[in-house]
């Protein structure tokens, strides 16, 4: 297995960094190849601008179209091209980050904004009366799997179905479904650690064992059963889920998960 770890935490001594390091040692110890993109250590540029697209930047800037032209011409900046090459190399991608303000850190969102360019991660495939492009289960990154390894400061009860922060699956849906599944990546159930601001040193060994177990079972873990866009569940071009496809009483983001 070839695994890319995209790590987003500024402190090398943090829990997130320890989990990243443990993932490297565990996977390499099991005979897998591992590459790491440590975004803070790399001093990753988090903002999209015209410099990303060089001679293919228009005035006014059109991020989608300009990024697609630069991708097609091979003139994206070297840092972006390197990350795209890592994604194409990997068959598994682990995203290691803390949940900040209900989402990923800005530097990781900036990685997505710059690396997931038009024609690389979206804007591909046939658009017709029966298809709406190759996305949501299809696309240029199909055949790969991803796992979110996330830490939260609050306790698990805050992220339960009736918790004040909302269900963790709902908070992660925009990342898991909207960013990863969109270009075809199969998404594994997340590894979430709750209440980490109050975690003691004595609790870490149990956390490490649980994380090692998840890592060693990545290849046998079933992905989240998101519905594929072009396989009959949605009306096209409205992309509304067809009536009766969901279990009785299911609403919200859960509509887009089979079973």
Write a structural description.
Helix 5 links the parallel strand 4 and strand 5. 31% of the residues lie in helices and 12% in strands. The protein has seven helices and six strands; from the N terminus they run E-H-E-H-H-E-H-E-H-E-E-H-H. The radius of gyration is 19 Å and the shape is globular. The chain is an alpha/beta fold. Strands 1, 2, 3, 4, 5 and 6 form a six-stranded parallel beta sheet that branches.
Properties at a glance:
single chain, 259 residues, alpha/beta, 31% helix, globular
| Binned strand content | 5-15%
Class per helix and strand makeup? alpha/beta
- Topology order in helix (H) and strand (E) letters: EHEHHEHEHEEHH
| Largest sheet: number of strands, sense, barrel closure | 6 strands, parallel
Q: Helicity range of the residues?
A: 25-40%
Shape: globular
Counting copies of identical and different chains, the oligomeric state is: single chain
- Average of the residue pLDDT scores: 96
Spatial separation of the terminal alpha carbons: 29 Å
How many β-strand stretches? Answer: 6
List the total number of helices. 7
Give the uncertain stretches in residue-range form: none
């Amino acid at each position: 297995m070839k695994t890319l770890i995209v790590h987003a935490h500024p402190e090398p001594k943090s829990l997130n960094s320890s989990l990243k390091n443990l993932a490297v040692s565990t996977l390499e110890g099991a005979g897998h190849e591992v590459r790491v993109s440590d975004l803070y250590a790399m001093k990753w540029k988090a903002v999209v601008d015209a410099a990303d697209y060089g001679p293919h930047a228009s005035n006014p800037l059109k991020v989608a179209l300009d990024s697609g032209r630069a991708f097609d011409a091979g003139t994206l900046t070297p840092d972006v091209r390197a990350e795209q090459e890592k994604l194409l190399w990997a068959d598994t991608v682990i995203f290691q980050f803390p949940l900040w303000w209900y989402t990923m850190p800005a530097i990781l969102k900036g990685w997505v904004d710059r690396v997931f360019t038009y024609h690389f991660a979206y804007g591909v495939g046939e658009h017709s009366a029966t298809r709406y492009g190759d996305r949501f289960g299809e696309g240029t990154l199909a055949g790969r799997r991803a796992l979110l390894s996330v830490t939260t400061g609050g306790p698990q009860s805050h992220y339960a179905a009736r918790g004040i922060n909302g269900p963790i699956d709902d908070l992660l849906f925009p990342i898991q479904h909207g960013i990863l599944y969109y270009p075809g990546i199969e998404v594994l159930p997340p590894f979430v650690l709750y209440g980490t601001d109050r975690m003691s040193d004595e609790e870490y060994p149990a956390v490490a064992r649980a994380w090692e177990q998840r890592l060693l079972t990545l290849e046998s873990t079933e992905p989240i059963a998101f519905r594929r866009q072009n396989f009959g569940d949605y009306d096209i071009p409205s992309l509304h889920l067809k009536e009766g496809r969901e279990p009785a009483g299911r609403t919200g983001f859960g509509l887009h998960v089979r079973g």
